[in-house]
Amino acid sequence: GAGERRLAGGLRSRRTLDPAPYVRLLQQIDHSVPADQRGDLLCFFAGMSEILKVADAMAEYARESRRWIVLLLHSTLSAEEQDKVFDPAPLGIRKAILSTNIAETSVTIDGVRFVADSGREKQLRWDPASGTRNLAEVWISQASANQRKGRAGRTGPGTCYRMYQREDFDAMDRFPVPEVARTPLDATLLQMKVLGLRDPRRFPFLTPPPPEHLDAALLQLTLHGALEVGKEGEE
């Protein structure tokens, strides 16, 4: 299992990422772990812009120390580029893998001994007031933070460095926001109509959507003539 440490300072503010603490982490690992002991570093970031910012800073130290290979893992990269993270590094060299939450559950990378977690992710959210989706950078949930921590030392001892304050962790939601609360409900309500289900406000959803999202979807479908809603929301 993975131990836990905090290296606060990875975020200058809730919107600005500082790459310096991540470079210092490479230096700390070099000073505390013998070069002949294998163990790679997996870093979690919100998106590609944060990954590139830290990669630029790490690359300079990697060239000077000759102890690190900096690799990127992101859904926009080619399969060939993504596959590089799975190749073992030469003896005496460690991999620093900079990833989005694609490495949280989707892939397992052997040899990861250290994890650095920024605590952030990009999430597609639905705004019923404007009727638009937007990609927002948000804090992850405590469950996601623990999932990321579990990526360290899956086959031996490991350490997770959380690059944020304890109070940030305490303020996180316990679990991720359910998809039903982040997506428009129009298609779901139309499918319910096709199935002959009547008042969606009374339907026993496993995870009930926010009432304002449900009301907004009902209003939009009614305005477009797709539904006829009576006083109690029944067709």
Instruction: Assess the beta-strand content as a share of residues.
Output: 15-25%
- Helix count equals 8
Flag low-confidence runs.
231-235
Largest sheet: 6 strands, parallel
Radius of gyration: 22 Å
Give the structural class. alpha/beta
Let me know the number of strands: 8
Classified in CATH, the superfamily of the largest domain is: P-loop containing nucleotide triphosphate hydrolases
Average pLDDT taken over every residue: 85
> Main sheet: which strands, in order across?
1-8-5-2-4-3
Shape: elongated
CATH architectural type of the largest domain:
3-Layer(aba) Sandwich
Instruction: Count up the domains.
Output: 2
CATH top level of the largest domain is Alpha Beta
GO molecular function: helicase activity; hydrolase activity; RNA binding
Domain Helicase C-terminal: 28-196
Keywords: ATP-binding, Helicase, Hydrolase, Nucleotide-binding
Organism: Heterosigma akashiwo (Chromophytic alga)
